[in-house]
Specification:
This is DUF948 domain-containing protein. The protein is mainly alpha-helical. It has 1 helix and no strands.
Length: 73
């Protein structure tokens, strides 16, 4: 008398396997998103440092240019 219960049991087993696969894939996506977030944060810090370095380097040049323009004008 296993036949009447075979298809519902098979459907439940397949549904469980499908949910398990989705769970594993969701965990992998979560790990990759965290890794990407760390890389974005690191890149943002590097860009901020580079912008600050550029501003520090450009300040004396801008002051020198302004002084030169005032002398010429």
């Amino acid at each position: 008398m296993l036949w009447p219960m075979l298809w519902p049991m098979l459907a439940i087993a397949l549904a469980f396997c499908g949910i398990a696969v989705l769970g594993v894939l969701a965990a992998r996506v979560f790990v990759e998103v965290r890794r990407l977030a760390r890389q974005v944060a690191t890149s943002s810090q590097r860009i901020t440092r580079a912008a600050e370095d550029l501003e520090r380097a450009a300040t004396p040049l801008a002051a020198q240019t302004a002084h030169t323009l005032r002398q010429d004008g």
